[in-house]
Sequence to fold (203 residues):
Amino acid sequence: AMTFAIGGISFWIPSYMQQRLAIHEGLGPLLVVEYATHVESVMMREKMAKLLSTANQTFGVLVVISGIIATFLGGWLADILRKRSARGRMLVQAIGLLCGAPFVALCGMTPSVTWLLVALTFWGFFKGLYDANIFAAVYDVVRPEARGAAAGLMNTVGWLAGGGTAPLAIGWIAKKESLSLAIAMASTVYIAALNASCIPMNA
Fold:
């Protein structure tokens, strides 16, 4: 779920944020005209390139900083909970999924640039909370002699089925419907992963 979100959001959010910034600066009508006439002016090309650069930088800073903070906190909290329960680390990951899903949806649903930045910040935070315990949680339920294979399999499946397909899936939905809806729908993957994570917790 998280690699799907990382792959999809990292690929598409800069372009999505570029659109939101353009509308925020009053360039929406010009974009509509250029899209309808298939004629792009040099001025608009330069403005959109500048907005895309701003979007990339802003996205990177928000997600990296919030993720770094959350990764440390997630690891620290998981170690504390692990002393109380064998499922402590999985619980922290479940919290990351549960709390991160609404902010993924908000990224796609909000027309506000401010709220988009807020949503990205909190998405990065809860992503870090989840990421902190990826391998530690697996090692809690896998025998020591099989941990290397388990980590390799998890990475392979995660990036092929998640990060590798997400940009294509979101792009396909965006073409059929809208990029806003496609990004928001990525939150459903979080819910599916949360339901799956409850299986070992209840076992």
About this structure: The mean pLDDT is 80. DSSP finds ten helices and no strands in the chain. The CA atoms of residues 78 and 92 lie 6 Å apart.
